From TrEMBL, chain A:
Gene3D superfamilies linked to this entry: Aldehyde oxidase/xanthine dehydrogenase, a/b hammerhead, Aldehyde oxidase/xanthine dehydrogenase, molybdopterin binding domain
InterPro entries named in the record: Ald_Oxase/Xan_DH_a/b, Ald_Oxase/Xan_DH_a/b_sf, Ald_Oxase/xanthine_DH-like, AldOxase/xan_DH_MoCoBD1, AldOxase/xan_DH_MoCoBD2, AldOxase/xan_DH_Mopterin-bd_sf
Aldehyde oxidase/xanthine dehydrogenase a/b hammerhead domain ranges (all copies): 22-138
Family annotation (Pfam families): Ald_Xan_dh_C, MoCoBD_1, MoCoBD_2
Organism: Desulforamulus aeronauticus DSM 10349
Native organism taxonomy: Bacteria, Bacillati, Bacillota, Clostridia, Eubacteriales
Protein name: Xanthine dehydrogenase, molybdenum binding subunit apoprotein
MF terms in GO: iron ion binding; oxidoreductase activity
From TrEMBL, chain B:
PROSITE patterns: FAD_PCMH
SUPFAM superfamilies (alphabetical): CO dehydrogenase flavoprotein C-terminal domain-like, FAD-binding/transporter-associated domain-like
Name under which the protein is recorded: Carbon-monoxide dehydrogenase medium subunit
Superkingdom of the source species: Bacteria
Species, as recorded: Desulforamulus aeronauticus DSM 10349
SMART domains noted in UniProt: CO_deh_flav_C
Keyword Zinc: no
FAD-binding PCMH-type domain residues: 1-175
Keyword Acetylation carried by entry: no
GO MF entries: FAD binding; oxidoreductase activity
UniProtKB/TrEMBL annotation, chain C:
CDD domains reported in the protein's UniProt record: fer2 (cd00207)
Keywords: 2Fe-2S, Iron, Iron-sulfur, Metal-binding, Oxidoreductase
Molecular function via GO: 2 iron, 2 sulfur cluster binding; metal ion binding; oxidoreductase activity
Protein name in UniProt: Carbon-monoxide dehydrogenase small subunit
Entry keyword annotation includes Disulfide bond: no
Domain 2Fe-2S ferredoxin-type: 4-80
Transmembrane domains' residue ranges: none
Organism (species): Desulforamulus aeronauticus DSM 10349
Pfam families, per the entry: Fer2 (PF00111), Fer2_2 (PF01799)
Pathway connected to this protein: Alkaloid degradation; nicotine degradation
């Protein structure tokens, strides 16, 4: 591919931005269909109970109520709300552990019944008329407790008490030998909180069943094709009779709807089938909190063997994550935690053991970073501890041990590019690393500190999970092109980026590209938007499709120009011979000529992506009020190796958004439960995600170590912004006050207590 | 079940309406508490009586050294009022810390008092200012010191189905008087206080003529630190005295464990820091 | 339940319609009048997605009683610009990358507009305070703040002309 790009790398106006700026963009929550009913869900007030009796007659009798759904009149087909069933490759088996409704409820918020009525108010009223008799069952809330013999079993499990799916084991080298070779061995355990995606649009779906039984579901899913599969399976329909699409926009995702939007889709569809009218289900904010996936909380232990000079000889990581009441992504998340936690540093002897554990809490699933921020908080906090013990600068110990292209690692694909060291150097410069440790007087109440941490991630899910993409690029008769890809654009700029790539390959102006997306009916199968894969994997498919179309065009044009296809190139929509410039013709002329002779150029891209490591170095500057324990981040620098920034402004946006979420993870975001399994922080006023007042200066630095496997060299970006943020901030807090934290968030009270204990 | 919504145009009209509905109507101002309480079914009423269009209630006035804030005045109006900023800066600070701009643009200062939450920001500042609430009902008008407005958590002396708090008034700060409002919260906006403290302090020469210290939420209502106030009264104030007074103030408080906003123990220890900081700040502004 | 007549100006146009006493302003704007640009993220005054301008001030339309809009001038995202003549905030939000998922955008722009309508030289802190009640989970706020500053400059420049 040529180097001087005309579209790629440019900050073109995002395709979705005008509609969104004007308030004209449609989201699922905006949809209103003729005859549409409103669905509301009755949720369990108990963390674990059997439904002994459920009487819906009074609710059904309420005027305006058109359907009431319970486990008695909905399909008894087990599924997993996440897309795991689409991705899991034998011999591994996906965990399918829930029904649309069940006779047992396993967490506070679990679905008991749902009503469809002519208005939200009537539906809500009807919920109060449903009479349910519960028999309370024993409960367990902590994953360590849930593994014990005496704990109640939430589901049938093969791998161990309350362990969903498999236990993950990863190994390289000889771990015992590695520890034996070490001069020092460090072991620490870290505790991670429940974080919430808190995307701005709550889970929502509108389901419509046509008179001939064809199903259409508009929803907030990040993965229309896998979601279609889940719905088709539950309701026993051919995939081809189910259409799942975004309408076309989604108010954020961050992993919370990789698969279904919690249960919005199947509930809406079940009600629509019963009522024979379209049904809209929109979770309110509290439902979104209590009854839709969170990030996994849990425990991570890191044991590292190190030589006197700082060289790592062995690293063992153990992760135990809280799955909550259902599996969702709990079989996969511990794997990514381990794989990423091990592969950021080169270390010849490594091992990971990890798994999730069911408890009677809100299910945990995918959230930006997918286990990696949990693991990296532990790993990179410990690396700072080791550096301190050895009297090394945190930058130096990392420089000595970071993974470099060509070295072996635990991942089943090679590391072919890394801009990590450049990220570290640029970041250190921007934060003025040399000031570290020199900013405080003994008498200061407000103490300042600087810290850093590093990380990597994936660029898609292969080969951990099935992952492939398809795309079409169709040349229209006027030479403009239509791209079709099944991925959504949940705000990450997907449709713009994919269109840029198509325009670049086709040699036409960006404005000549139209795109169809996030619709199972008009696009070929495509996994969807997750695993930082969209630009990398879906992009590869679009590039392949465009190349295919371009090849067809060149073959046709070569005939018309009486030259060979190999000598043709295209710029600005003009196809020309690189040998004789006079021989040229516009793409529109070629397309029209072909059309008149009964042909359209249809490029098909069918790819299985490879994988590539993005890299990042985060630097935090903090202030700690030692009288109150309050930590304020005053500056964050994030230097990221993104391979190639197809659209730098979009990339920066991803990084800044990730950083903000990472700052929240580090300092204030946490869902706690009371002793009856109820979430305490179940809304925006109680869940302390950052407001504009809490975000400091953020500096995103883009480094481009192009990867040979990525489209135009690009690597994954979407999740990377918060991989190392918490560790960097905790390390900065250590620099400020000399106290090491093994648990986040670093709330004022936690920090204050530690300060007091030290006194 | 809510059946009617009435927009009052005058105080008289509102009072007539309350009388006609005989306990079935309820006053609503900004609605930032009332609308949520209604949808959570914490309160029920047949009729909402909106007082935000009543012109006479929208004033911030200065009368004979007293500042009067009408019942329809919002936190934003208070925060931006030059009169308040110069004569009661701690109230501007307190109102400015409520929720978010959108909330402050509709929520009223009087509503903040009537809603009777133990840590309502403006109410805490108003108590330090020695504010008095004007309550109007069919039978006439009465004046109740803000400290007597609380019957319990969320329970006000004003019965919003029969009476109207028409305004709140307090003496404007004079030269030689200083004030402070400090707050500890989990984030920079949209966060109820873990603790808030308001101080008004009057110096005579170098001595403390009087001081009011109000702390919350450390009791079912904003709490005066009477012992600490007494301790400082008449004293020539310095850092040591302030530190001691802060300790005394803490001994008067009984904060509770909050799973959301800090343990009792933490709040107690922070209270000392906040009272100290507030006193220091008030002293600085008094000088 | 008694229906009430509500009269108000929405984006400059006089509206007269029947509402329930319990309706909120967002119900009227989104459901009754079909202007779905205004979003609902929490329904409790805690996120700002539903921000509209009422009589010059930003308010959370999800907790404003509909009747309180009586005789008021209400502006929503649909009323501040057209596709051939966008409001400078709409332009700068687009050009500065301040829009990701776009769900917070209408509320965010309305909050910012209320500020700029009265102040063309806001400080960064004033901007932060203005949008502190608008949660954005996508952007990290930085590009939004830059967009508001840039829009202020644009407006100032066009005013100075
Ligand atoms: C998201 C959010 C964040 C918030 N953050 C804070 C915060 O940080 N700090 C804080 O202190 N508060 C906070 N609040 C609450 C604050 O908005 C209210 O206490 C507000 O000041 C109440 O005023 P209002 O006009 O909205 O009262 P309304 O909701 O209209 O009324 C409150 C109560 O008082 C009664 N009432 C009101 N006015 C009168 C009157 N004149 N006479 C008789 N009865 C009357 C009503 O019947 C009702 O019971 C927050 C609220 C929300 C929704
Ligand atoms: S929807 Fe109104 S503030 Fe969240
Ligand atoms: S752009 Fe998605 S919430 Fe702001």
């Amino acid at each position: 591919m040529k180097k001087d790009y005309t579209v790629v790398g440019k900050n073109i106006r995002k395709l979705d931005a005008i509609e969104k700026a004007m308030g004209a963009a449609t989201f699922t929550t905006d949809i209103k269909l003729p005859g549409m009913l409103y669905g509301k869900v009755l949720r369990s007030p108990y963390p674990h109970a059997r439904i002994v009796k459920i009487d819906t007659s009074k609710a059904e009798a309420l005027p305006g109520v058109k359907a009431v759904a319970t486990y008695l009149n909905t399909p008894r087909v087990k599924f997993n709300t996440s897309a795991t069933s689409t991705f899991t490759i034998p011999p591994l088996q996906p965990v399918e552990d829930q029904y649309v409704f069940d006779s047992v409820v396993r967490y506070v918020g679990d679905e008991v019944a749902a009503v469809a009525a002519t208005s939200k108010k009537v539906a809500e009223e009807a919920l109060e008329l449903i009479e349910v008799e519960y028999e309370l069952l024993p409960t367990v809330f902590d994953p360590l407790a849930a593994m014990k013999e005496e704990a109640p079993s939430l589901h049938h499990c093969e791998a161990g008490k309350n362990v969903p799916g498999e236990k993950i084991h990863i190994e390289m080298g000889d771990i015992e030998l590695g520890f034996a070779e070490a001069d020092y061995v460090f072991e620490h355990t870290f505790k991670l909180p429940v974080q919430k995606q808190a995307q701005m649009e709550t889970q929502a779906a509108v389901a419509q069943v046509s008179v001939d039984g064809k199903v259409t579901v508009w929803s907030t899913t990040q993965t229309p094709h896998p979601s279609r599969r889940i719905l088709a399976t539950i309701f026993g329909l051919p995939y081809s009779k189910v259409r799942v699409l975004n309408p076309p926009y989604i108010g954020g995702g961050f992993g919370v709807r990789i698969g279904l939007s919690a249960k919005a889709e199947p509930i809406a569809l079940a009600l629509a089938m019963l009522a024979k009218q379209p049904v809209k289900v929109v979770y309110d904010r509290k439902e979104d909190f209590i009854a839709s996936d969170t990030r996994h909380s849990g425990y991570v232990t890191v044991k590292t063997g190190v030589k006197k000079d700082g060289t790592f000889t062995a690293r063992k990581i153990m992760g135990i994550l809280n799955s909550g009441a259902y599996c969702s992504w709990s079989a996969e998340t511990p794997g990514v935690l381990g794989a990423m936690g091990l592969s950021i540093y080169y270390c010849p002897n490594q091992m990971y053991d990890g798994h999730s554990v069911y408890t009677n809490t809100t299910p945990a699933g995918a959230m930006r970073g997918f286990g990696n921020p949990q693991g990296m908080f532990a790993v990179d906090s410990q690396v700072d501890i080791i550096a301190e013990e050895l009297g090394m600068d945190p930058m130096e110990i990392r420089r000595k041990n970071i993974m470099r292209p060509g070295l072996p690692w635990v991942l089943p694909y090679p590391c072919q590019s890394s801009g990590l060291e450049e990220c570290m150097d640029l970041g250190a410069k921007a934060i003025v690393w040399d000031q570290r440790g020199k900013q405080n007087q003994d008498s200061d109440t407000i103490r300042r500190g600087i810290g850093m941490a590093i990380g990597t991630h994936v660029s898609n899910a292969w080969p951990f999970c099935g992952d492939y993409s398809n795309a079409y690029v169709t040349v229209q008769q006027d030479g403009s092109i239509q791209v079709a890809s099944g991925v959504p654009d949940m705000g990450t700029g997907t449709i713009t980026t994919l269109s840029q790539m198509a325009a670049e390959v086709m040699g036409i102006a960006f404005g000549q590209v139209g795109i169809t997306f996030a619709d199972t009916e008009s696009t070929p199968f495509e996994i969807g938007s997750h695993a930082s894969r969209t630009c990398y994997a879906s992009g590869t498919a679009v590039v392949a499709a465009a190349q295919d179309a371009r090849k067809q065009v060149f073959e046709y044009a070569a005939n018309m120009l009486e030259v060979t296809p190999g000598e043709l190139d295209i710029e600005n929509g003009i196809i020309y011979s690189t040998l004789t410039q006079e021989k040229n013709i516009s793409l529109g002329q070629v397309a029209m000529e072909a059309h008149l002779r009964g042909q359209q150029f249809i490029g098909v891209g069918r790819i299985i992506p490879q994988n590539a490591p993005p890299y990042l170095a985060h630097f935090a500057e903090v202030e700690v009020d030692t009288e109150t324990g309050k930590v304020r981040v005053t500056k964050m620098v994030a230097a990221h190796d993104v391979g190639k920034a197809i659209h730098p402004l979009i990339v920066e946006g991803q990084l800044e958004g990730g950083l903000a979420m990472g700052i929240g993870y580090a300092l204030s975001e946490e869902i706690k439960y009371d002793d009856r399994g109820r979430q305490l922080n179940n809304g925006f006023h109680k869940y302390m995600l950052p407001t504009a007042m809490d975000i400091p200066e953020l500096e995103a630095i883009i480094v481009e170590a192009e990867d040979p496997t990525g489209p135009f060299g690009a690597k994954g970006v979407g999740e990377t912004g918060l991989v190392a943020t918490a560790a960097a901030i905790a390390n900065a807090v250590y620099d400020a006050i000399g106290i090491r934290f093994f648990e986040i968030p670093l709330t004022e009270e936690r920090v204050y207590r530690a300060l007091k204990e030290r006194k | 079940m809510l059946k009617d919504y009435i927009l009052a145009t005058s105080i008289e009209e509102a009072l007539v309406c309350l009388k006609t509905y005989a306990g079935q109507a309820r006053i609503i101002a900004g609605g930032t508490d009332a609308m949520l309480d209604l949808s959570a079914k914490k309160i029920t009423t047949s009729c909402l009586l909106d007082i935000t269009k009543v012109k006479e209630l929208k004033k911030i006035e200065s009368m004979d050294g007293q500042i009067v804030i009408g019942a329809a005045v919002t936190h934003s109006e208070v925060k931006n009022s030059d009169l308040i900023r110069t004569k009661a800066p701690l109230l501007a600070e307190a109102s400015g810390s409520v929720g978010s701009l959108q909330i402050r643009n509709t929520a009223t200062v009087v509503g903040n008092v009537v809603n009777a939450q133990p840590a309502a920001d403006a109410a805490v500042a108003l108590m330090a200012l020695g504010a008095v609430v004007e309550i109007t009902e069919d039978a006439g008008t009465s004046y109740v010191p803000i400290e007597e407005m609380y019957l319990g958590v969320g329970k006000s002396k004003v019965d919003s189905t029969k009476q109207m708090a028409t305004s709140i008034r307090f003496p404007a700060l004079l030269p030689g008087q200083g004030s402070a409002f400090v707050r500890l919260a989990q984030r920079g906006a949209l966060a109820l206080p873990m603790l808030n403290v308001a101080v008004v302090l009057s110096l005579c020469e170098d001595k403390v003529e009087w001081v009011r210290i109000v702390m919350a939420p450390v009791a079912p209502k904003p709490l005066r630190a009477l012992e600490a106030e007494k301790y400082l009264q008449g004293a020539v104030i310095n850092d040591e005295l302030i530190a001691k007074a802060a300790k005394i103030a803490v001994s008067e408080a009984t904060p509770r464990d909050s799973a959301l906003r800090g343990s009792a123990e933490y709040r107690k220890e922070m209270l000392e820091v906040l009272v100290r900081r507030a006193l220091q700040q008030a002293l600085t502004t008094a000088r | 339940m008694q229906k009430k007549i509500l009269k108000f100006k929405l984006n400059g146009e006089l509206m007269e319609l029947l509402v329930s006493p319990s309706d909120t302003l967002v119900d009227v704007v989104r459901d009754k009048l079909g202007l779905t640009g205004t979003k609902k993220g929490c329904g409790k005054g805690e996120c700002g997605a539903c921000t509209v301008i009422m009589n010059g001030q930003s308010v959370n339309s999800c907790i404003v009683p509909a009747m309180q809009a009586m005789d008021a001038e209400v502006e929503t995202i649909e009323g501040i610009g057209t596709s051939d003549k966008m409001h400078p905030l709409q332009e700068t939000f687009i050009d500065y990358g301040a829009i990701q998922c776009g769900f917070c955008t209408p509320g965010m722009i309305m909050s910012a507009k209320a500020l700029l309508d009265g102040n063309l030289s806001p400080s960064r802190l004033q901007i932060k305070e203005t949008i502190a009640g608008n949660i954005c989970r996508c952007t990290g706020y930085v590009k939004i703040e830059q967009a508001v500053l840039a829009a202020a400059d644009k407006l100032k420049a066009s005013k100075d002309k």
